[in-house]
Specification:
Number of helices of chain C: 3
Number of strands of chain C: 4
Number of strands of chain A: 15
Radius of gyration of chain A: 21 Å
Chains: A alpha/beta, B alpha/beta, C alpha+beta
Shape of chain C: elongated
Largest sheet of chain C: 2 strands, antiparallel
Largest interface: B-C, 39 and 38 residues
Distance between the termini of chain A: 49 Å
Oligomer: heterotrimer
Shape of chain A: globular
């Protein structure tokens, strides 16, 4: 199929449809609403299910119900809406039914704003809901990647009976770029043996997240963990740019990673041996790859559109082999390439000591660059 | 001289749709009667193989253990949303939720109201026993004025704790609701009427006529601090006046329904 | 007049001895058997005397579907039906 100019939210919606989505349940929230609107038009015309729920709580539980039938099902939302969905997500994880959720992140906490942010890293990558569970989190940095990862998300969800998040920030959702959509896949005709679709000619199926006996719950926790270890082994994805000889390694995902790439290219042109690792799977995190890089790198620079939520994961991966510095913009501010380039220059000339309080230093730098008492 | 002609019949036997697992309900709790009636209806309609039940949170949390059909277990209050997800994907299935008053009237008010407003083609069996049973007898939205519970120990003071919610009356105002009735389980005659209502509710769904709900006044002998028999009397004397029995919404298509 | 004889079977794995059937029995022929204990420790429902008609009310009020109700209708067959006409 030829490339066409597509808006991120709509591209994600259409990609899901072409991946064989049977049902979509959602609730309007900026900056993901075009996704829901596209679904409202396309799903019924294809004879599939679209329903605008009364709340994110209801939407995620409609997804939960549909997921129990083994159908390909998804929802989408943005940060505050996803917070509301956490209850359902924990139940879905505990019931081991597959589903996809697209989070087009915006500034927070609270109502925040509708500008692009990566402030949901903690709630998506490190839980959010209660109990031990391990969702897969995919972070696209372009409209094309958002399409590809959306298609992949359904396959991963079904393969591992897992929740898969497509974690896009508002920029990815709102930007228009040339991209290629996949062919329409045929709808699946067979459903897994565990699905609750009516006990015709078989014993009944029960899908629940209840394990009253603590030993049974622990067995379930272990089963989820074993499955997660399998996912960690098989599904780590990332993009490497100029890393072969990199002495400074920038780590950034999504839009922050994309802006960082421009900065890395400029710095390279100036002779600085810098490269970029852009995690595509935030969970499972490319821990081993970063640990390997730490053997050759002089220092790391984590760039995020939050206050350093991925920073600790990079630190754990680097494991004290090199200093890990940080630069972020928050509240819906997207960093400029020049800001990151300046950070790379600084690191090239003045590497931070191991275990420095890089967050404190970053806050100081950010305050200094702000003039006229804007804060 | 006469030869006696003996005709032997089974008047009642346990419905097939109810499996052989003893329930966790307390002795004399009328949850069990409601379960039994649902099972009898599923048997009579011959739909058990295409039925998917949605259990809720509260005493009926283990409802999935007792029916011979597929079952899922919803988060607290969300059963109508889950049922919506299932029913939309498999429209020719029979989907029912089984919810108590804490689940349906308190935390799940949004989900039940909107499911009814959408005319979601599901059946809701709603148990109103004026109390939170599973957590040990706390005040529910349905607790009667003055009723003592473990979280309203001097009785429900409506000035501070608000008034009971009459759910059937509320839902009946919604255009999407097709069949909304209140019955009681406190004596054999009322149990028979309750069964007929449950049958009608499932038929409404079976024939694609929209949202159906049967509210059942039920007992909680343990948390009310009464014997099972006293509890039945309490329903009749105290609950029925606050929650009058009757048909609150019977849409014209449902009224025309003839059940064999 | 045809004679009606009824009886019940109590599934003691389900009966919790709640007594709702005893209270509802129109013939007052049921009790909770003080001589028996179920595996759950309940005195199960039982017939205490003759007179069960197999009306099934006990089963209608039973929360545990523990009762199976049987009934025999014994109609005396007349030698000459014409005599009755």
């Amino acid at each position: 199929m030829a490339k066409e100019l597509l808006k991120g939210n709509i591209a994600i919606a259409e990609a899901a449809i072409r991946a064989g989505l049977e049902a979509y349940f959602g609730y309007p929230i900026t900056p993901q609403t075009e996704l829901l609107e596209w679904m409202s038009k396309r799903m019924p015309e294809l004879g599939r299910i679209f329903l605008q729920a009364e709340s994110e709580l209801a939407a995620i539980n409609m997804v939960y119900g549909a997921a129990c039938t083994g159908a390909r099902v998804m929802s989408s939302s943005s940060s505050p809406g996803v917070s509301l969905m956490m209850e359902g997500l924990s139940y879905i994880a505990g019931t081991e039914v597959p589903m996809v959720l697209v989070d087009v992140m915006r500034g927070g906490p609270g109502l925040g704003n509708i500008a692009p942010s990566q402030g949901d890293y903690f709630q998506m990558v490190h839980g959010g809901g209660h109990g031990d569970y391990y969702p897969i989190a995919l972070a696209p940095a372009s409209v094309q990647e958002a399409i590809d990862l959306t298609v992949l998300s359904f396959d991963l969800a079904e393969k591992y009976r897992s929740i898969v998040f497509v974690l896009a920030d508002g920029s990815i959702g709102q930007m228009m770029e040339p991209a290629e959509l996949p062919e329409m896949r045929p709808m699946k005709k067979e459903y897994p043996a565990w699905a609750t679709r009516g006990a015709q000619g078989r014993p009944r199926n029960i899908l629940t997240s209840i394990y009253v006996d603590a030993e049974d719950e622990e067995q379930t926790n272990l089963r989820l963990l074993r499955r997660w270890k399998e996912i960690e082994t098989n599904e780590v994805r990332y993009r490497a740019y100029y890393l072969d000889d990199a002495e400074i390694v920038v780590v950034g995902f999504g839009t922050a990673g994309r802006v960082a790439l421009s900065a890395v290219r400029t710095a390279r042109a100036q002779g600085i041996p810098v490269g970029l690792l852009r995690p595509i799977t935030l969970r499972p995190f490319p821990t081993q790859q970063i640990r390997e890089l730490a053997k050759q790198a002089q220092s790391f620079l984590v760039v995020e559109m939050n206050g350093g939520q991925m920073l600790d994961d990079v630190r754990l991966a680097v494991a004290g082999q090199a200093p890990v510095d940080f630069y972020g913009r928050m509240g819906g501010v997207v960093p400029m390439s020049e800001e990151i380039e300046r950070e790379i220059q600084r690191l090239a000339h003045n590497p931070v000591p191991l275990y420095a309080d890089v967050r404190q230093a970053w806050m100081q730098r950010l305050l200094q660059t702000k003039t006229k008492g804007a804060w | 001289m006469t030869t006696p002609q003996v005709q032997r019949q089974i008047v009642y036997r346990r419905p097939k749709a109810l499996n052989d697992v003893p329930t966790h309900y307390c002795p004399g709790c009328t949850h069990g009667i409601a379960h039994r009636l649902v099972a009898e209806v599923l048997d009579e309609m011959g739909v058990i193989e295409k039925t998917i039940g949605v259990a809720s949170v509260g005493c009926s949390v283990f409802g999935y253990n007792y029916f011979e059909c597929d079952f899922v277990e919803a988060p607290h209050g969300r059963a109508p949303a889950m049922a919506t997800g299932i029913k939309r994907v498999i429209p020719d299935s029979i989907v029912f939720t089984y919810q108590g008053d804490g689940d349906l009237v308190s935390i799940g008010m949004g989900e039940i109201t909107h499911a009814a407003a959408r005319g979601e083609n599901i059946t809701v069996v709603f148990i109103n026993n004026a109390i939170y049973g599973m957590t040990g007898g706390q005040m529910a939205p349905t607790t009667l004025p003055g009723q003592k519970t473990t979280s309203s120990q001097n009785g429900r003071d409506v000035k501070r704790m608000g008034y009971p919610i009459r759910m059937s009356e509320m839902l009946a105002t919604l255009d999407g609701a097709s069949y909304v009735v209140r019955r009681s389980l406190h004596d054999p005659a009322n149990i028979r009427k309750a069964k007929k209502a449950i049958r009608t509710a499932f038929e409404v769904q079976h024939q694609g006529l929209g949202f159906s709900l049967v509210e059942l006044l039920s007992t909680c002998p343990i948390n009310w601090g009464m014997s099972p028999v006293e509890a039945l009397k309490w329903v009749e004397e105290h609950m029925v006046p606050v929650y009058p029995l009757g048909d609150y919404k019977v849409s014209p298509t449902v009224a025309a329904l003839r059940i064999r | 007049m045809p004679r009606v004889r009824g009886w019940i079977e109590v599934d003691e794995s389900h009966c919790k001895g709640c007594g709702l059937c005893v209270a509802a029995c129109p013939q007052d022929v049921m009790h909770l058997d003080p001589e028996r204990l179920t595996s759950q420790g309940y005195h199960p429902a039982a017939l205490k005397s003759e007179g069960c008609t197999g009306c099934g009310i006990c089963a209608i009020v039973c929360p545990d579907a523990a009762l199976t109700v049987f009934r025999e209708v014994i109609a005396p067959q007349r030698q000459a039906t014409a005599a009755a006409a």
